[in-house]
Amino acid sequence: MAEDAKVAREAKLAQLLNQTFEHHNQISSTPKIQRVPLFWRQNPDFYKYCIPKMISFGPIHHGNENLKQQGQHLKSQWTSLYIEEYSKQVPLYNGDKQKAANYLYGVVQEYIGELKELFAEDVIEGYSDEELIWMLFEDDGTH
């Protein structure tokens, strides 16, 4: 019986010693946008500071129905205003909002690979590149 316990312990130790951080978002040489740790989200006094009240930016709270109802129209309005102002300020567009919007969207599209690297993997899983491009394009126009 003692021999079985020793074999089991050695197997557990071998498994423990082979653990790495390669496939986890625990350690990164570059800071990443990530979810608030579960420990903090479970604390009722802290939880209220982890959830946006009106508007979400980025993929973490995107799709929250309460936020969609309250703030999505504001994001769209601010993005539209940003595009309009941008089209007026950049001589190339001469007030053409469609051309300005296509350009700005194209910038996000061009850099989506690099932009995705700014997020922890679990934050963007489940989103297609097209969904992320649109989300980041619209969110960028609001600030």
Number of helices: 8
How is the main sheet built? none
Q: What's the pLDDT, averaged over the residues?
A: 87
Which residue ranges are poorly predicted, with pLDDT under 50 across at least 5 consecutive positions?
none
Number of folding domains? 1
What coarse outline follows from CA principal-axis ratios?
Answer: elongated
> Strand-residue fraction?
under 5%
Total number of beta strands: 0
Q: What structural class do you assign from the helix and strand content?
A: mainly alpha
Structural Rg: 22 Å
Provide the succession of SSEs: HHHHHHHH
Give the proportion of residues in helices: 55-70%
Cα-to-Cα separation, first versus last residue: 66 Å
How is this structure best described in words?
InterPro entries: DUF247_pln. The radius of gyration is 22 Å and the shape is elongated. 59% of the residues lie in helices and 0% in strands. The protein has one domain (2-140). The protein has 143 residues and is mostly helical. Helix 4 crosses helix 5.
List the helices and strands and how they pair.
Blueprint: H1 2-17, H2 38-41, H3 44-47, H4 65-89, H5 97-110, H6 112-116, H7 121-124, H8 129-140
Describe the structure in brief.
This protein is 59% helix and 0% strand. By secondary structure, the chain is mainly α.
Can you tag this structure with a few keywords?
mainly alpha; 0% strand; DUF247_pln
